[in-house]
Design brief:
single chain; 4 domains; GMP Synthetase, Chain A, domain 3; 7 strands
C-alpha cells in the first residue's frame, strides 16, 4: 500500500474514532480528545466537562466504550484516560456544543451568539469568534459572525494560541453549523512589548562589569594624583599616607570583580511548583442529602452522579434522570447546596 493512501486511511479512522467518542460522551460535555499510538497500544486522552458521566458506576460506562471501540475499529488493547476540563468556558468544543444545544432549544441565534461571546470573554479569553452557517431565519442559508477581542487566522500565533471547536444544531428548517474560535488567555503575541523602568530593572552581569570598570578607572586616577604629588624613586618606599587610598581602591575593584563573576555563574531560579487545589466538597453519600431515599440514590448513582457532581449540576440537568421531575430536582439541588455550604 502506498504511503499516501495509508496516511489517508489512518486519518480517516482517527476522525471516525473522534466522532464515536464525541457521540458516546455527549451528555458528559465532550471537550476534545487526543489519540496517540504507543508501543503498548493506542492511548486516548478524553477531556470532558463532567467525567463522572463517562466513567459511570464502578467504571461500567468507560469499559463499555473501550470494548466497543476495540471491536468497531479493530484495535488491540486501547486505553482511555478521562480528564476534567480546567475551564469549560475556555474550551472551544464545549462552548460550541452548548451553543448548538441552545439553538435546538429554541434560542434566537443572535441572543445565543452574544451570550456565548460574553461568557467566554468574561472567563479571561483574549479573543473569541463564533460563526453560524445554515438556515438561520428563513429557507435561504447564510452566515453570521460574532467577534470580540483579538483573533488570528494564520501563522504561528494561530497554530499555537487559537483553539477551535465545531458542533451541529439540528432544527426543523435544517442543520446549523456552529464554529467557535478562542484565543487562550496566556497567549503572547509577537507585537506585545513590555517596558521596564531603569530603577525596577534587576542588576545584570553587564551592569556589575560597568561598575567594576568605573571603580578601576577611579583607582587609576587616584594613583596618578598620588604620583604627581609625591614622585616615587627607584629605591624609595611608598609613603604611609598613600597606602590606605590605594588599598581601598584595590579592595573595591576586587569586590566588583567577584560580584561580576558570581552574577555570571548564578543559576536561574527554578519555578515553584503549583500547589494542588484542595477539594471543595467533602465525602458524602447520596443518602445524606435531605429528601433522597435509597431508591432515588440508586437511580442517581446509575446515571453517574455523586454529591460533588450534583452540586456542580443544575436542576435542569437533574430532570434528565428517569423518575425525577422539576420540583424533585429543585429540592435535591437546594438540599445539596445546604449540605455543601454546611461543611467546615
Amino acid at each position: 500500500m502506498a504511503v499516501e493512501r495509508k496516511l489517508v486511511q489512518e486519518s480517516k479512522r482517527r476522525l471516525l474514532m473522534r466522532e464515536f467518542l464525541a457521540r458516546e460522551s455527549a451528555r458528559a460535555g465532550f471537550g476534545g480528545c487526543e489519540i496517540k499510538r504507543t508501543p503498548l497500544g493506542l492511548r486516548i486522552r478524553l477531556v470532558a466537562e463532567r467525567p463522572g458521566f463517562v466513567i459511570g458506576r464502578r467504571g461500567s460506562t468507560i469499559q463499555r466504550i473501550t470494548n466497543e471501540l476495540a471491536e468497531k475499529f479493530d484495535l488491540d488493547d486501547p486505553q482511555i484516560e478521562v480528564e476534567e476540563a480546567e475551564d469549560p468556558d475556555l474550551n472551544a468544543q464545549i462552548a460550541a456544543q452548548k451553543m448548538a444545544e441552545a439553538l435546538e432549544r429554541g434560542w434566537h441565534f443572535r441572543r445565543a451568539g452574544h451570550s456565548t461571546v460574553r461568557r467566554i470573554m468574561n472567563s479571561g479569553a483574549k479573543g473569541c469568534q463564533i460563526i453560524l452557517t445554515g438556515k438561520l431565519t428563513g429557507s435561504r442559508g447564510r452566515m453570521e459572525k460574532f467577534t470580540a477581542g483579538h483573533i488570528k487566522h494564520c501563522g504561528e500565533p494561530a497554530e499555537e494560541f487559537m483553539r477551535e471547536g465545531y458542533a451541529m444544531a439540528k432544527k426543523k428548517l435544517g442543520t446549523i453549523g456552529v464554529q467557535v474560535k478562542i484565543m487562550a488567555p496566556d497567549a503572547k503575541l509577537p507585537d506585545d512589548v513590555t517596558i521596564v523602568d531603569a530603577d525596577e530593572r534587576p542588576a545584570s552581569a553587564v551592569d556589575i562589569h560597568e561598575e567594576y570598570v568605573e571603580s578601576q578607572a577611579e583607582a587609576d586616577k587616584a594613583l596618578e594624583e598620588i604620583e604627581e604629588e609625591a614622585p616615587i624613586g627607584a629605591d624609595e618606599d611608598v609613603p604611609d599616607s598613600a597606602g590606605p587610598g590605594l588599598e581601598e581602591a584595590d579592595e573595591e575593584a576586587d569586590e566588583a570583580e567577584e560580584e561580576a563573576e558570581e552574577a555570571a555563574e548564578e543559576p536561574e531560579p527554578e519555578p515553584e511548583e503549583a500547589e494542588e487545589p484542595t477539594p471543595a466538597v467533602g465525602e458524602h453519600e447520596l443518602t445524606d442529602i435531605s429528601g433522597v431515599g435509597p431508591a432515588t440514590a440508586e437511580t442517581l448513582a446509575d446515571e453517574g452522579y455523586d454529591v460533588a457532581q450534583i452540586a456542580d449540576a443544575s436542576a435542569e440537568d437533574l430532570t434528565e434522570v428517569s423518575g425525577i421531575g422539576e420540583k424533585t430536582a429543585e429540592s435535591i439541588k437546594e438540599a445539596t447546596d445546604e449540605l455543601v455550604e454546611g461543611e467546615p
